């Protein structure tokens, strides 16, 4: 039986990837900072050799906004080499090479580390998950006037669909950089906000806020979008209908 290690396996994406792989008959190890028996902080690397011993494929979903993803990737690659891991699969973000945001730059650096690792590798870039867009809109809706980045659209994708694609890639052969995966619709943030407000039964005045900086210009130019790869099925409105409780 194939043994697959999923890093970040208790997170939003990693948990679904692990469930999907188990359903497909794989033996799955879940690695996270607190999940026993493979509780490993990848940024430190302690205990990582035991986690990857006997593993055929690693699906690398672990990430943090607090920094250190590049160091974590180096530790994971080194341990995978020592263990003879055959295939390393990495989830990245559409636009990491086009939008000069710090977090995106780090994701791109991780891609390059994996590409140069000497391991068999696969990298999938996707657009932002529905869950993240909801989080952004929920925070904005706490104010009487809802601020939104002027001129920016998004292309949210369903995380379960991404998990299914990653599981498919993990059980296949190393494929290098595979085609991007985007949600079914590219929508202005104002339209996403109106859809969200309708779903929660609230009203807010929307305020388009121009921002400064190269990253914002990259988002305005659509560097984070992949309309030619709108392969996701679940729309933002459908996601909200399933996720949010029905209004009384």
UniProtKB/TrEMBL annotation:
InterPro entries: Ergot_Alk_Oxidoreductase, NAD(P)-bd_dom, NAD(P)-bd_dom_sf. Residues 8-131 form the NAD(P)-binding domain. Pfam families: NAD_binding_10. Gene3D superfamilies: NAD(P)-binding Rossmann-like Domain (3.40.50.720). PANTHER family: PRESTALK A DIFFERENTIATION PROTEIN A, PTHR43162. This is NAD-dependent epimerase/dehydratase family protein. It comes from Streptomyces cinereoruber.
